[in-house]
Amino acid sequence: MAEAEQANNQATVGMDKIYVKDMSLEIPHAPKIFMDRENPQIDLQLQTQAAAIGEGVYEVIVMATVTAKVGDKVMFLIEVKQAGIFPVKNVPAENMDSVLAVMCPNILFPYLRETVSDVSVRAGFAPVLLSPINFEALFQQQQQSQVKPPEETAH
């Protein structure tokens, strides 16, 4: 009986669905940009967000904006919001932020990476292969930036 109770109280994070929530592609200088043979500079902006969508169920989104430029000309711009629905049970409140900002984005990132690569190829360009992201380091960096330094008192 105690084993069944312990199993019911065990922390679990599931995955109900992974999907592309939003996606856009812009090629502002087409078709002339296809004549450029230079390798573009790739800039990646990445964000995550999470929201409760039910009791113990969360939607987590990893958003990427990939901008490829040749000189000052935008070759292409890809924006993707890769999302997932994650049921979370018996996770202590103090651990929820790291589950939603680290664990869930780590699950979503390979799908985001594949979507970005696929869109760039379908747009007529070489595949964009995003390097792995350390979501734990990003989370810790975000946590540190939110901690305010103690105010100095005047003497």
Overview of this protein structure:
With 155 residues, the protein is an alpha+beta fold. The protein has a single domain (24-144), classed as Bacterial Protein-export protein SecB. It is 32% helix and 37% strand. It has three helices and five strands. The protein has helices spanning 2-8, 93-122, 135-146; strands at 12-13, 17-26, 41-54, 57-70, 73-89. Strands 1, 2, 3, 4 and 5 form a five-stranded antiparallel beta sheet that branches. The longest helix has 30 residues, at 93-122. The termini are far apart.
Structure described in brief:
The protein is of the alpha+beta class. Helices cover 32% and strands 37% of the residues.
